UniProtKB/TrEMBL annotation:
Subcellular location: Cytoplasm
UniProt keywords, alphabetically: Amino-acid biosynthesis, Cytoplasm, Diaminopimelate biosynthesis, Lysine biosynthesis, NAD, NADP, Oxidoreductase
Lineage of the organism: Bacteria, Pseudomonadati, Pseudomonadota, Alphaproteobacteria, Hyphomicrobiales
Subunit structure as annotated in this protein's UniProt entry: Homotetramer.
Species for this entry: Methylocystis echinoides
Catalyses which reaction(s): (S)-2,3,4,5-tetrahydrodipicolinate + NAD(+) + H2O = (2S,4S)-4-hydroxy-2,3,4,5-tetrahydrodipicolinate + NADH + H(+); (S)-2,3,4,5-tetrahydrodipicolinate + NADP(+) + H2O = (2S,4S)-4-hydroxy-2,3,4,5-tetrahydrodipicolinate + NADPH + H(+)
GO biological process: diaminopimelate biosynthetic process; lysine biosynthetic process via diaminopimelate
One Pfam short name: DapB_C
Cellular component aspect of the GO annotation: cytosol
UniProt enzyme class: oxidoreductase
Protein's name in the database: 4-hydroxy-tetrahydrodipicolinate reductase
Molecular function, one GO term: oxidoreductase activity, acting on CH or CH2 groups, NAD or NADP as acceptor
Summary of the function given for this chain in its UniProt record: Catalyzes the conversion of 4-hydroxy-tetrahydrodipicolinate (HTPA) to tetrahydrodipicolinate.
Stretches assigned to the Dihydrodipicolinate reductase C-terminal domain: 130-266
């Protein structure tokens, strides 16, 4: 079978560079395009050599249509605005789109759902095996414990992260909500401050910490009467996200349009 031809969006970013580094070690894929924004100082540079990695022969461009012309799949860790621009082009060109970008608004998620009527889209707030397995365990725990156990989600990331709560915290919050059979949007407590009053029964709380170089730490606490259960995941290396995204891209091969998750890719379901 021929190699899957990949375009990386956000090629100069932390995850873009990690993908450029990981692709040569991944069987069955080949980098054919690297996208950055129109104002990027990296335009025209080799997306490997520019960052101290082996040269790839792929120059960074801001021309989405040209980059997609020879592509089978896109891996996108960028910004919400860039992801939406790429989603429109991917739908038109029928190129599969793996989306790791977080911080998308409800309207932007609606546009991604529209894209998924035209092409295969895998979107996840966290591409690692560990977090996606954790989400299955959290769903089971939330179902078994019921809403009498207060669920709180704490996350910590590096100081350059721009969105909160993290995509992973929201994914884990969704798992709690799914286990309880409720809608997360109607039961979220985000950003408590000042005279908040007592905790509202059934809420799923979120707290975001930022500092240093933390790759990504998440803990879900179920607090009961006189006892507490805590589930934690600590990302030590961005390679886990890159490898997950590459597995997702390979999984899209031959797949019809649809909005898929990493649970679909990894075959993880909560019975
Ligand atoms: N789902 C997952 O498993 C993971 C998700 N993420 C998410 O991925 C995203 C990126 O993270 P990270 O790599 O750390 O962030 P970075 O800021 O390091 O990288 C984002 C890159 O996207 C570039 N960019 C901005 N506008 C455009 C555009 N129009 N077209 C193409 N590229 C553009 C940025 O360029 P410039 O700096 O010039 O603006 C930057 O180089 C975040 O939303 C993060 O939360 C991160 C890790 C794992
Ligand atoms: O911005 C990051 O760095 C990360 N973003 C994702 C998130 O928002 O959860 C995944 C990971 O935690 C790293």
């Amino acid at each position: 079978m021929s190699e899957l031809r990949l375009v990386v969006v956000g090629a100069a970013g932390r995850m873009g560079r990690m993908l450029t580094q990981t692709i040569p070690d991944t069987l069955g894929v080949r980098l054919v395009g690297a996208l950055e924004g129109a104002g990027s100082s990296s335009l025209g540079a080799d997306c490997g050599a520019a960052f101290g990695l082996p040269a790839t022969g792929v120059a960074i461009t801001s021309d989405i249509a040209a980059a997609l012309a020879e592509a089978d799949a896109i891996i996108d860790f960028s910004t919400p605005a860039a992801t939406i621009a790429v989603a429109k082009a991917a739908a038109k060109a029928r190129v599969a789109h793996v989306i790791g970008t977080t911080g998308l608004s409800a309207d932007e998620l609606g546009l991604i759902a529209e894209e998924a009527t035209e092409t295969a889209v895998v979107r996840s707030g966290n591409m690692s095996l560990g977090v996606n397995l954790l989400a299955v365990l959290i769903e089971k725990a939330a179902k078994a414990l019921g809403p009498g156990w207060d669920a709180e989600i704490i996350e910590m990331h590096h100081k350059l992260k721009v969105d909160a709560p993290s995509g992973t915290a929201l994914l884990l919050g969704e798992a709690v909500a799914l286990g309880r059979g409720i809608a997360l949007a109607e039961h979220s407590a985000r950003g408590r401050d000042g005279l908040t009053g007592p905790r509202k029964a059934g809420d799923i709380g979120f707290a975001a910490l930022r500092g240093g170089t933390v790759v990504g730490d998440h803990t879900v606490i179920f607090a009961g009467m006189g006892e507490r259960i805590e589930f934690s995941h600590r990302a030590e290396d961005r390679g886990i996200f890159a490898r997950g995204a590459l597995a997702a891209a390979l999984w899209t091969r031959g797949r019809g349009p649809g909005l898929y998750s990493m649970a679909d890719v990894l075959g993880l379901t909560c019975a």
